[in-house]
Amino acid sequence: MILGICGSPRKAATNHVLSYALEKLENNGFETKSFLLRAKKIAPCIHCDYCLKHKECVQKDDMTNLYALLKEAEGIIMATPVYNGGISGQLKCIMDRCRALGAEDINSLRGKIGLAIAVGGDRSGGQEPAIQQIHSYYILNGIVPISGGSFGANLGASFWSKDKLEEVKKDEYGFKTLNKTLKYFTNYLEK
Ligand SMILES: Cc1cc2nc3c(=O)[nH]c(=O)nc-3n(C[C@H](O)[C@H](O)[C@H](O)COP(=O)(O)O)c2cc1C
């Protein structure tokens, strides 16, 4: 199963490109599930260290479902809007809450394949730092981060939305970076 996580609080540009990716994967025979952070209740990590002792998070909220999905997935796609040159706070919350997964089993996410998508309102709004932040999370958790290859999508999928859903749909170059990265992603998943 491939899990797509949308880090936007809206059903807008980021959700659109993530849905495109998941639909393409479904058409290629992969089972997919999506988890939209929109309208979910996921509190920030409070660093209480309960998880280190009890092997689970003390906070019971929508993260409980996501823990199960993350463990089940063989591939993970994190898609984020660019906020202040990086990932959204919503996405950062779930990354931090994954400390409990590592406490439960250091190999919880090991060997899964990870793809990153960043959607910025500006042309040079911080898409690449956002992608690298997701890649850092992948590396820290034993997930293999996927590049889109040297010719056209070096770090992953990067979109320019001009702050509008209708504009992201017209971002041909963004879809080129996503398609190239999906090619590498499926290649890794099939091996
Ligand atoms: C709090 C906040 C901070 C933002 N910071 C940036 C930024 O640093 N760079 C950028 O390109 N766009 C920035 N934007 C614009 C969003 O990245 C852009 O509108 C994106 O398409 C939103 O994704 P969505 O439509 O899926 O919600 C910001 C938007 C918000 C709400």
From TrEMBL:
Q: Which family does it belong to?
A: Belongs to the SsuE family. Isf subfamily.
Q: Which residues form the NADPH-dependent FMN reductase-like domain?
A: 2-152
Q: Name one GO molecular function term.
A: oxidoreductase activity
Required cofactor names: FMN; [4Fe-4S] cluster
- Protein encoded by which gene: sgcG_2
Q: What keywords are assigned to this protein?
A: Flavoprotein, FMN, Oxidoreductase
Q: Which InterPro entries does the UniProt record give? A: Flavoprotein-like_sf (IPR029039), FMN_Rdtase-like_dom (IPR005025), ISF_SsuE-like (IPR051796)
Reported EC number(s) for this entry are 1.3.99.24
Q: What protein name does the entry list?
A: 2-amino-4-deoxychorismate dehydrogenase
What is the species listed in this Swiss-Prot or TrEMBL entry? Methanobrevibacter filiformis
Q: Where are the transmembrane segments?
A: none
